[in-house]
Amino acid sequence: MKKILIVEDDAVITRIYERQFVGAGYEVELAADGEQAMEKLKRLTPDLVMLDLQMPKVNGVEVLKFIRAQPATKDVPVVVFTNSYLGNLVQQAWAAGANKCLTKAICTPKQLIEVVRSTIAAAEKSPVPVPAEGKAPPTQKEEEDAAKFQKEVSATFIASGSHVVSMLRARLQALIKVEADTTAINYQHDRLRILSEMFEVTHGLAGKSGLAGATRIGTMAGATEALLRELHDKPKNINPSTLRTVANSIDFIAQLFGAGTQETPLALDKATVLVVDDEPISRRAVMAGVEKAGLNATGIEDPLEALATLEKQRFDIIFLDVQMPNMTGHELCVKLRATATNAKTPVVFVTALTDFNNRAKSTLSGGNDLIGKPFLLMELSLKALTYLLKGQLK
User: Fold this and answer.
1) Distance of alpha carbon 100 from alpha carbon 79, whole angstroms
2) Where are the beta strands (DSSP E) in the chain?
3) Each residue of 7-36: pLDDT tens digit?
4) DSSP state of 269
């Protein structure tokens, strides 16, 4: 019987994975953190390691390096789970010798089992992936039981939504309160503590969403986690713009919980995004944020050219600078709202002008939102995902 070591710090996720793999005919060992995993790997050689990258004490990348450094485990295949928006960690995992990198938020147990089978088969140079040794194909009853279990997991996940959202909203309000008094003795400590609590909640949410088949919630939770981690690492970027983006994402996650888990494919790679900014570096930065979310972006320098394009082509979301020659972003927004193609397309202004008067002008011209410059790429990614996934719910 093939043996799998699951390294995961979330007990709920671990129990579900264990049940699924035992049911598929595998022997399962568990480790709740990186330190425990390395201790177990000194005593056993599994056929595959399933490894979460975000863990306390020792992260998954360090565990992976340990695996590859030990003679007994250096060739053991490793399938890692990660947040796809944490690009640096993913690259580190590939460099350390990962065989597969999966996005936890959108990977179902069935998909995971197939990946594990094919990865073990590839490591053994088997011609085709086969079920675990001694395990007959599932009977109709076993398939019905699996479907029932999946339904129960989804129902439990959706039922937890109000509690999770309440926690995130309470923590965000606490952060806003802390930010209102930057002279407080514990200011720096408190803001980092709250951000840490928030990204731990979103990390767990992203992991459970894949098990429940809630890919939209998982996508939003993963992107929100990534922004919260960046704010934790670069707290100087905590400002009204980033806090508003986090608040909007939490509100949308609440809306997604209300919509349930019956979903169609996301197909975000087919979304069309337009970026209009006359300054090349700024335009490229906005496009990089869009592309970080896995979206395709078109950049245009001249607002007059942009208007001609908008009259002919529909976009799913538009990012506009405000201060541009020939036509301001506000003027362009007014004109595009008069087109048949983009009258209702979400428009987000990206500008250094974030005062009350400019925010009012942005709204009056037909804009939906505003991001302040300078911005984190992940803030722009999260903003784009929020509006695009909202559009898919209609």
Assistant:
1) 5
2) 3-7, 27-31, 48-52, 78-82, 100-103, 272-276, 296-300, 317-320, 347-351, 369-372
3) 998 888 888 889 889 888 899 999 999 999
4) G
Range(s) of the domain holding residue 95: 3-137
pLDDT per position as a tens digit, 362-371:
888 889 999 9
Rg (CA), the chain: 23
CA 142 – CA 122 distance, rounded (Å)? 27
Triad 129, 131, 134: Cα angle to 5°: 135
| Reported pTM | 0.85
CATH number, residue 166: 1.20.120.160
Whole-angstrom Cα distance, residue 297 to residue 285?
A: 11
DSSP assignments along 182-242, one per residue: TTSTTHHHHHHHHHHHHHHHHHHHHHHHHHHT-HHHHHHHHHHHHHHHHHHH-GGG-SHHH
Indicate whether 187 and 231 sit together in one domain: yes
Tokens representing 377 are 């790429």
Dist CA 168 CA 108 (whole Å): 25
